[in-house]
Amino acid sequence: MEHSNKYIFIYSVIMVVVVAVSLTIVAVQLKPAQEDNIRIEKMQNILASVNISTAEVQKKQVIDVYNKYIVSAEAVNIKGDVVESDQAKVFAIDMGSEIKKPIEDQRLPLFKATLDNGDIALIIPLRGKGLWGPVWGYISLKTDYNTVVGTIFDHKAETPGLGAEINQDWFTAPFKGKTLFSENGTFTSIQIVKGGAADDDPHGVDAISGGTITSKGVEKMIYDNLLSYQEYFKKMNNQ
Amino acid sequence: MSDSNTKAEKEPMFSAKVLKLLKNPLNLENPITVQVLGICSALAVTVQMKPAIVMALSVTIVTAFSNLIISSLRNTIPSRIRIIVQLVVVAALVIIVDQLLKAYVYDVSKKLSVFVGLIITNCILMGRLEAYAMGNKPWPSFVDGIGNGLGYGLILVLVAFFRELLGSGKIYGMKVIPQALYDSGYMDNGLMILPPMALITIGIIIWVQRSKTTELQED
Measured between alpha carbons, how far is B199 from B201 in angstroms, rounded to an integer? Predict the structure, then answer.
């Protein structure tokens, strides 16, 4: 069947309009549910960095668990002054866009959690580059601003089985109990050691074989992000 | 589906011909093992069973409904732009499925990542639209879509079963290989998690299928 150009033109216009309208309706309808998922995932990650697993918890209850443990949140600047203390606003800070700003304009979020044993842990979001795309995560510290309580990492597109292993327990577990400062007080961060860290190394963990660039990326991410908080740590330690 | 006599039509809803549309793609005309279509996603999403099942369902839904829509419109579609029309319908359905997955099964949607979007380029879809839906009535086209989606899904789930079992010792996320076996020296085969083993698994499935099915054997 041969159709005129006019028919084809009108046909295409109607088709495109119908499809566009229906896709818009679907997108608008589903947006709240999708945003909830992203928020809940962020809460799960923050909780996981202080070793609270929410894998068995129903999605809706994650929010309750989060509110139970995470008591406050604030954002500081590079000088260590608090610039934002509204918990909801701090939670909404997007690290991806924040690290693109000049360092003196960056808002540096931190969350405080009260653990089951009464300890306070400080949770700091991390954002950096892996091999193929962004890597991110959270690291939690004790109130000595030195000892690591726990970490969690995730990635966008690292190589499966190699760099992608950074989100596995075997990689994150050794971070627990490591320290960020050497005995004379210099900031050493945590080294991810190719070939494996010595068992008694207080600042080193094992790297991933075949995932060197991702491992280096995670190491640099931890160093860079924590470096920005140095003034805040000093202030807190002097109090 | 056994309500074959619920609707009175000239031709029964589930006549032998229609049933054949459902059954053939499972074996004799299987999209993956016989027509060798949709291999790319079959390699990528078969590490675990859960994403494989979701992917299979998504493809089934998209093939069924794009077949239905294209078949209903087939007499109005100008032949000069028919491929564009088919693509627009498929793309719209895929975006809707992707949005639904993001809203209701977020963790699975993260695992499937780009592969849901790539359903658009899955040859099974365009193949069925061109070969079947453009020339047949909506109902048989719909069934044909379901049949081909299931045929694709069957292989996907089968491959995922072996890869998850041998690669991580689990079935549908549950540990099935007893700890005692690991203690006595058994190890998960890490190679099963990587794409090459998916190709080899599909190869073995094709081999078994051809040796069992005389219709598929070539001289």
Answer: 5
Interface mutation vs chain B, best among A22, A28, A30, A31, most B CBs within 10 Å: A30
pLDDT at B3: 45
pLDDT band of A1, cuts 50, 70, 90: low
Average pLDDT, integer, range A123-136: 92
For B96-147, write each residue's pLDDT tens digit.
999 999 998 888 888 787 788 888 888 889 889 999 999 999 999 999 999 9
Å between B200 CA and nearest CA of chain A: 18
What stretch of H or E contains A153?
strand A148-155
CA distance B76 to chain A (A): 9
Least CA distance to B105: which residue of chain A?
Answer: A37
- Whether B5 is covered by a domain: the verdict is no
Residue B10 lies in a domain: no
Average of per-residue pLDDT across A9-17: 95
Provide the residue ranges of all domains of chain A, joining segments of one domain with +: 70-238
Count chain A–chain B contacts defined by CB atoms under 8 A: 55
Nearest to A225 by CA among A90, A135, A158: A135
Asked whether residue B112 is assigned to any structural domain, the reply reads yes
Which residues in chain B have their CB less than 8 angstroms from residue A14's CB? none
Range of the domain at B46: 16-206
- Compare all CA atoms of chain B with the CA of A154 and give the residue at the minimum distance: B110
**In-domain check, residue B161:** yes
Helix (H, G, I), strand (E, B) or coil at B67: helix
Task: Report the Cα–Cα distance between both ends of chain A, in Å, rounded.
Answer: 84
DSSP string covering A61-78: HHHHHHHHHEEEEEEE-T
Please indicate if any CB of chain B lies within 8 Å of the CB of A19: yes
Number of domains in chain B: 1
pLDDT for B14 beyond 80: no
Give the residue, A155 or B6, on which the prediction is more confident: A155
| Residues in chain B closer than 8 A to A34 (CB atoms) | 99, 102-103, 106
Chain B residues near residue A161 by CB distance under 8 angstroms: 190, 193-194
d(C-alpha A168, C-alpha A160), whole Å: 11
How many angstroms separate the CA atoms of B60 and B41, rounded?
14
